[in-house]
Amino acid sequence: MIAIYPGSFDPITLGHLDLIGRGSRLFERVIVAVLRNPNKMPLFSVQQRLDQISLSIQHLPNVEVDSFDGLTVNYAQMRQAQVLLRGLRAVSDFEVELQMAHTNKTLSTQIETVFFATSNEYSFLSSSVVKEIARFGGSIDHLVPPHIALDIYQCYNHNSPMLNPISTEAIPPLKSISVEREA
Hints:
Radius of gyration: 21 Å
Distance between the termini: 85 Å
Number of helices: 6
Order of helices and strands: EHEHEHEHEHH
Number of strands: 5
Structural class: alpha/beta
Helix content: 25-40%
Strand content: 15-25%
C-alpha cells in the first residue's frame, strides 16, 4: 500500500521526519509530496526543500520525495496511492484535518486519510515555529536536522547559537524592603 504525506515542508522538522519514519514501517511505500502552493511565500524553493528532504530520508529505502501542484487527491491517484498520511498535534489540527479528509473523500472515495498522533516531544513543533525562532536568533538545532538548521541560519544571516552561544546576564534578586509600621 502506498501512502502520500503531503505538505509544504518549509522547512521539514524532526516532527515531520518522525511521522515519515513511523509511516515507513506501516506502509509499503511513503511518498513525501511537497506542495507547490502559489499562495505562500516559502523560505526555500521547492527544489531546495526536495533536496533537504532527500538528504533527511536517505536512510529509509521505501520513502521517496516528489513535488506536485493542484489537488492532493489527484496527485495521489496519479501515483496510485491509497492513503493520505496526516499528523495531529492538537485539537485544532484535528478540526482542520478532519474537514480536509471529508472534503478529499468527496473528491475520491478510493483514498483514505490516516491520522498519526504526533509524538509527545514534537507536539508543539511546526515549520512556522522553527522559522520564528530562527528569525530572532534562537537555536533550532534540536528542531530540525543539522543540514537544514544551517540552511535556515544562512537565510536569516545567523550563526548557529549552539556554535556561537550568547551569554546572558543574571538579574540579581530584589532585596526585601522592610517597612516599619508606626504605632
